[in-house]
Structure formats: C-alpha cells, structure tokens
Automatic annotation (TrEMBL):
InterPro entries: L-PG_synthase/AglD (IPR022791)
Subcellular location: Cell membrane
Regions that span the bilayer: 12-33, 53-72, 129-155, 167-185, 213-237, 287-313
Source taxon at top rank: Bacteria
Keywords associated with the record: Cell membrane, Membrane, Transmembrane, Transmembrane helix
Principal localisation: membrane
Name of the protein described by the UniProt record: Lysylphosphatidylglycerol synthase domain-containing protein
Organism lineage: Bacteria, Pseudomonadati, Bacteroidota, Flavobacteriia, Flavobacteriales
UniProt membrane topology term: Multi-pass membrane protein
Length: 322
C-alpha cells in the first residue's frame, strides 16, 4: 500500500519514522535515568559531585577512553564487513552509531541487526545480519573467556556461598535446552528469510579466518578499555582497591550479567543487582557501584547514541533499493 502513496507523502512518513526513533531513544534514556528504582538521579548527581568525579581532568580522561572504545568498535565493524563489501571509516561510523540509536530501546539491542542491514542493498542484507552476529559472538567470546578466568579467581579469593547442587541442576537444564533446540533445528527446515541453516553454516565456516581473528583482537582491546574505565571510576569515587582485585570482580560481573536472560525493562535492575552483590562481598557501598554503572552507561551508550541520532535523522535508503 505504501508504494501507491504520492512521493511527498512517502517522504513525510519516512521523516516521521526517523524522528520517532530518535524521540523513542531519548525517552528511553530519560526514563532509565529518572525512574531508576535503585538509584535516585538527584542522589547520583549529588554523590558524584561530592566525590569530585566530574572534575575536568577526570571527565577528559573518561571521554578519551569512551572515544577509544567506540573507535575500536567502528574499526571492528569496518573490518567485519570488508570481505563482503569495502566501506569507508565514515560509513562504518554512521552505521555503528546510527544502529546504536535505533536499537537502544529494543530488547537486548536486537534492533541493531535490522538497523545495520538497511544501510545495504537487499541482496546484502542477510549476509550483514550474519556478519553482525559474528561481531557480537566475538565480543561475547572475549567476555566469557575473561569472565571465567576472573570468576575462578573471585571464588578462590573470597568466601562465596554457592549451592553447587542447584548450580549443577541449572547447568544441566541449560545444556538440555540447548541440545533440544539444536535437535529441533536439525529436524526442521530452519530458515532466516530463505537463508537455510545449511547456508548459514556454510557462510560462517567460509568467512575469512584472518578477518575473524582481527575482530576477536579488537573485541579484546575493547574489553580491556571499558573494564579499565570501570576500574578508573571506582578509583575516582575514592575506592582503594588494586587493579587485579577489581578486575576479578569486574570480569565476573560482566560474565554473570551477560548470561542472565533479561528483557530490556529489567536489564539495569538485574545488572545492578549482580554488581551490588559481587562488590558487596568486598565491602564497597551500593551507591558507588550504581553510580559507576550509570556513568558507564552514559559514556558508552547514551553519549554515542546522541551523535548517532544525527545519522538516523539523515538516513536514506541505498540508491539501488526501494
């Protein structure tokens, strides 16, 4: 029906959709800041100001780390797409930040897959979705690897009450679900808009190994930078803790927060609760941890999404597609 509408009408609806995405992203940011059940926004500002976290020197250094974090993410996306199509750094910047803004309010940022795909012609889009999946898998692999190592040190160092029987039950149920899903997929003609499981497997196995290795390396650098940024914020808040001890908790926190299933409404609550529990064992107060998580979110998601809103507003479909 939309193709039958006059050109100006279609353009109006297109602009309206882009504005709606930007407004929805900013409303989502506002709601997360103002209606956080665990941390009052005014208390957060007052406490952070009292600790002098927002000094010029601190802010500039934190901004620099955020810049490095997203620089690596943009280069990683440019690298991942290169076997399919060469894109400039400017294109990678636009696609990464624009997709962040468009997906910020979607569950677990799943909208990023579609947001990046629409930057390409229709014959590229299914491959772009798979490439984006590879990029997320590379980051998840690094998070899991560092997390398992850090959590092992954490358990060995601190007295953590773990019900190993229930943990084994949970692990067994999880493995059983994975096996059943894998079996079900093999017995059915699983497709993604005509992209069969066989073709997906062929694409992933045929993807250049050197490119994937570089993506893993960039993911590792990103992990090192944003985890160091978290540690630095703890220091700015006056927490006396060694880098090694902090990293055992930070890596454990990211691991547990990434494997706990959640919808975006409860995402902050769950991740905040994990961080409070882990850092609470080290006698670090709750408001410091919640304030640190909030600043990390503002720097690494809100700030880039503000710049990304410019690319969403100025987005146009590729010329070779409708």
């Amino acid at each position: 029906m939309i193709y039958r509408l006059p050109y100006k009408t279609k353009q109006f609806f297109f602009v309206l959709i882009k504005l709606s995405i930007v407004v929805a992203a900013f409303c989502f940011i506002y709601q997360k800041l103002i209606n956080n059940p665990k941390l009052d926004f005014h208390s957060f500002i007052k406490y952070s100001s009292k600790k002098d976290v927002f000094s010029t020197k601190n802010i500039l250094f934190l901004f620099f780390l955020t810049f490095l974090n997203w620089l690596l993410e943009i280069i990683k996306w440019q690298t991942l797409v290169s076997p399919l199509r060469k894109i400039s750094f400017k294109n990678a910047l636009e696609q990464s930040l624009g997709a962040l803004t468009a997906s910020l309010f979607t569950p677990n940022r799943i909208g990023e897959y579609g947001a990046k795909a629409i930057y390409y012609a229709s014959n590229y889009r299914k491959h772009i979705v798979l490439i984006n999946l590879l990029g997320n898998i590379s980051q998840m692999f690094v998070t899991t690897l560092f997390g398992v190592i850090g959590f092992s040190f954490f358990i060995a160092t601190y007295q953590v009450n773990i019900n190993y029987y229930k943990f084994a039950q949970f692990l067994l149920i999880g493995l059983l679900i994975i096996v059943l899903i894998a079996f079900g997929i093999r017995k059915t003609k699983f497709t993604i808009k005509g992209f069969s499981l066989k073709k997906i497997k062929h694409f992933i196995l045929g993807y250049p190994k050197k490119t994937m290795a570089l993506a893993l390396f960039l993911s590792m650098l990103r992990y090192v930078i944003f985890s160091f940024q978290f540690y630095l914020l703890l220091v700015f808040f006056g927490i006396e803790i060694s880098y090694f001890n902090a990293m055992t908790v930070i890596t454990s926190m990211y691991l547990l927060a990434s494997i706990i299933p959640s919808i975006f409404i409860f995402d902050v609550i769950i991740k905040g609760s994990v961080a409070i529990y882990l850092f609470g064992i080290m006698d670090i107060n709750e408001i410091t941890i919640l304030s640190t998580i909030t600043i990390m979110w503002l720097l690494n998601f809100v700030l880039p999404s503000i710049f990304g809103s410019y690319y969403v507003i100025n987005f146009n479909f590729p010329k070779d597609t409708n």
